[in-house]
Design goal:
Blueprint: H1 7-44, H2 52-59, H3 62-88, H4 103-108
Helix pairs in contact: 1-3
Pfam families: zf-dskA_traR (PF01258)
Organism: Aquirhabdus parva
GO molecular function: zinc ion binding
Length: about 120
């Protein structure tokens, strides 16, 4: 028995490898960003760091750095969720209506869970 796929299904099937590669690349980038933030924080809080002027300058950036860390952590969660959906065959479908998410939207936001109609 031969299975016939629609053009959109064929496009999704052909690009699964590309989608996964892009998500994995994004995941590595986010993990690297989080590791750099942790290393900077560790260096700043090191007991042998006696350069008070440098510490004051670095501590002044705490709020900014926390915001960057929080954004990267949240994005990493979304990327991991997208990889899980890819593994289970649920990637690319709106969680509200169940319809396919527009390809253009997934290109810009590869971890999107809603179509344009239901995007908040």
């Amino acid at each position: 028995m031969t299975t016939v796929r629609t053009k959109s299904e064929q496009g999704m099937m052909m690009s699964t490898t590309t989608i996964r590669a892009h998500l994995v690349e994004l995941k590595k980038e986010l993990e690297g960003r989080l590791a750099r933030i942790a290393a900077e924080r560790e260096e700043r809080n090191a007991p042998d760091n006696d350069q008070w002027s440098d510490q004051a300058s670095l501590h002044g950036r705490d709020d900014e750095q926390f915001a960057v860390q929080l954004a990267a952590s949240n994005e990493l969660i979304q990327v991991n969720d997208a990889l899980s959906r890819l593994d289970t065959g649920h990637y690319g479908f709106c969680t509200v209506c169940g319809e396919p998410i527009e390809a253009e939207r997934l290109e810009v936001l590869p971890y999107a869970v809603r179509c344009k109609v239901h995007a908040v």
